[in-house]
Design goal:
Elements (H helix, E strand, L loop, with lengths): L6 E9 L2 E10 L4 E6 L8 H12 L2 E11 L6 E3 L1 H18 L6 H5 L6 E3 L6 H69 L5 H15 L2 H18 L6 H22 L2 H21 L4
Parallel strand pairs: 3-4
Antiparallel strand pairs: 1-2, 2-4, 5-6
Helix pairs in contact: 1-4, 4-6, 4-8, 6-7, 7-8
Length: 288
């Protein structure tokens, strides 16, 4: 399966009096380059977020933005219940010890700096579990985006590989004329020397020379590499790096065919194969 490295995922979750929004964007990169922007309340969870993101994204330049919005209309303040309970118990104990009426103890309680705090300073387990689910949802959305875009990339790659196979087949029609042309050129050169040459020795040397120009093995290897490329594309996991290695091997065989061609029409075909291979490499830059 081909996946694109480009992706986008978003999710929103209403959690109590807060709304959390997760935006994830990914672009091309040879390695994983992860950038997190979190509200301070979730900063202690950064390692957990990084681990989950790394596990699912694998590679690419990735930006994860988590934003937090208060919907309570209380100015972003919350009661720190644990602190409030502690302070309340202390005030009641002090009132009893002094033999004084507690009076409006809550008005005093709310003035204490550690009781009424910025809401971002508090995160409960239930809230964090909801945030984790929202992050997972955004990651899954981005993964689906990558799959959808990868389907288009896959079609393009199949087209280019099939074009190379077609061009490779077209070389066969020129091979006989190439050998005849090479043989005639050598004979002409010898005749120009105006020297007598042993016919048997000439044939031996000619056969040796023509064997050097034979491209049967290169054609076979290139066909094998093309088949392996298509086979790798259909594996369950996206493997852009592996496909990149296969294209390197394809390039070597195409270059060798070009260096041995010694024929104008075959050289034109080699140029067309190189063009198709370059288009494959360009697409692979965006394959996970």
């Amino acid at each position: 399966m081909i996946k694109s490295m480009t992706g986008f995922g978003k999710s929103t979750a209403a959690i109590g009096m807060r709304t959390v929004t997760i935006d994830i964007r990914a672009l091309n990169s040879k390695q994983l380059d992860l950038n997190l922007r979190l509200p301070s309340v979730y900063r202690e969870k950064e390692a957990e977020i990084r681990n989950e993101t790394t596990r699912l994204i694998e590679r690419g330049k990735v930006d994860v933005f988590i934003s937090l919005k208060e919907t309570s209309g209380n100015g972003g303040l919350r009661v720190n219940k644990e602190a409030a309970k502690t302070r309340y118990a202390e005030l009641m104990s002090l009132a009893a010890e002094l033999g004084s009426e507690p009076g409006d103890i809550f008005s005093h309680l709310m003035r204490m700096p550690d009781v009424l705090v910025e809401s971002e300073d508090i995160i409960e387990d239930s809230e964090w579990q909801a945030v984790r689910s929202a992050i997972s949802e955004a990651l899954q959305a981005m993964d689906q985006f990558r799959k959808d875009e990868g389907a288009g990339l896959g079609k393009e790659l199949v087209l280019r590989v099939n074009n190379i196979n077609g061009l490779l087949e077209s070389i066969a029609s020129h091979e006989a004329s190439r050998m005849t042309s090479v043989r005639q050129k050598l004979k002409t050169k010898i005749e120009e020397l105006q020297k007598e040459v042993d016919a048997n020795r000439f044939e031996e040397e000619l056969i040796y020379y023509l064997e050097k120009l034979d491209i049967t093995e290169e054609k076979q290897r290139l066909t094998t590499h093309c088949s392996y490329f298509l086979e790798t594309m259909n594996q369950p996991e996206s493997s852009g790096r592996k496909l990149g290695f296969i294209t390197q091997e394809m390039g070597r065989e195409i270059n060798t065919i070009g260096s041995k061609a010694n024929h104008a029409e075959m050289q034109k075909i080699v140029v067309l194969m190189k063009d198709e291979l370059e288009k494959i490499k360009e697409q692979l830059n965006n394959v996970l």
